[in-house]
Each structure stands twice: as structure tokens, then as C-alpha cells.
């Protein structure tokens, strides 16, 4: 089963190719002939070890059987279809999250691109559900999304760093502070979207032309029911900078015990 196919896996599927090229010869000279190998888990591993450049991809099932067809692709038959599962806080993980190779970045460029796309979407959905605003690459504990303890797989540090770099390129994350790659802000809402929410809240509450500190916006009595409650300062600042560019706000430097502030215009 390949990453691409596992992402669209259905309960009715019985065999899917892993997409690995195999250096195997067929006893038949016919172009349409196929060679079937009935294998136990150990036989499947033997076949997989001959796969050029893909020896690090684990089996989708410990009891899978394997066959090699005329195209040189491995097909696996798993006893149990992949299914979505719920995390400890109720977040629903897609079936692909239970597919072991999903946690190993693939060497094939097109497969890797699709794999990273799936990871990016998953991380954003998880972060929004759990209200996660930051991810540390070298933290003591990874977020649940990056480690599936049921299948004993996790996204290793180099892979996690690659994923966050890719998210940053797509405007879905940003290194915080800049010019380092260990901690990232996660944009399950873009700064412009946070800016729109904040400005709408300001106008709805008649706070236009008022001056507010950053703390009052994200942790004040009026904001505790808003979606931007406890929004980290780096993301808040980017949102306010967006309003400044649109002529809707003016940033004010804090003095003494008074933190940074903003004057809303309009």
C-alpha cells in the first residue's frame, strides 16, 4: 500500500501497491505475465529489502502477505483495514495516521509531496481543534499528532523540521523567533484572518478610536469568550501589523509596566 493509496483507503479495499520498484526477474517472457509470491511477514520483508531505495519503509501490517506483479509493484493484503480513530481529547485522526509508512518521509519526490500535503492539512486541523499555537521541534514531548503510540511510530526530528519548513513556505507556520528552525508558530488561522476577527470585535463593542494593550486584547475581561483569547503575542503582533497596513490601527510602544498597545482607527 502506498502513501497515495492509503490516503484514500476504504474498508472494501483488499490489495494495494506499495509503489516500490523491485529488481525481480520473471520466468515468463510475456509482457502481461505476473509473478505472485505467497509470503508470510518474513517473506514480505525479504521482498521489500530488494526494493531499491525504499528499504526503510515498514510493512503496513505484521501479518500482511505480498505479491509482485508484472509492473514490479508490491501489493499487500492486510487483515484489518485502516480506520479513523479518536485521540485522547476527541480529535478524529484519519485512517492514514495509522499507516506506519506515513511517519517516514518517502524518497520518491511525487510521493513525498503528497505525503507532506497530507501532514500539513492534518497538523492544521489538529492544532485548531486543540488550540495549539506553537510547536517545538526539540521539545520534551511532541504533540499527539506527531506520535501514534498505538502503532509505535512518531515523526522523527529531521522529518518534523522538514514538515514545519514546508508549512512555513506555504504560509501555514512561521519560525518564532525568526532565523531558527526549532520553534514555530502554527497558523491554523492566518494573521490576516485573526486581524479581521479582532477588528470586527472592536467595532461590534464600540472600541474604535480606543487604545488597548496587547494583554487587554487577548486576556482581558472582554475577550475571554472570543476565538483569539490567549492568542500568543507573536501571532497577535502580526495580526495587528496587518491592520496597520490597512490603515485600521496604530501600534504604540509600551512604557514602564504598561505593555505594548494599539490604537484602533475607524
From TrEMBL:
This is ESCRT-II complex subunit VPS25. It comes from Kwoniella dejecticola CBS 10117. Residues 40-60 are annotated as: Disordered. The keyword Flavoprotein does not apply. GO terms for biological process: macroautophagy; protein transport to vacuole involved in ubiquitin-dependent protein catabolic process via the multivesicular body sorting pathway. One of its GO terms (cellular component) is ESCRT II complex. Belongs to the VPS25 family. Keywords: Protein transport, Transport. Gene3D superfamilies: Winged helix' DNA-binding domain. Chain C. Domain 1, Winged helix-like DNA-binding domain superfamily/Winged helix DNA-binding domain. GO terms for molecular function: protein homodimerization activity; structural molecule activity. It comes from the Eukaryota. SUPFAM superfamilies: Winged helix' DNA-binding domain. InterPro entries: ESCRT-II_cplx_Vps25-sub, ESCRT-II_cplx_Vps25-sub_N, WH-like_DNA-bd_sf, WH_DNA-bd_sf.
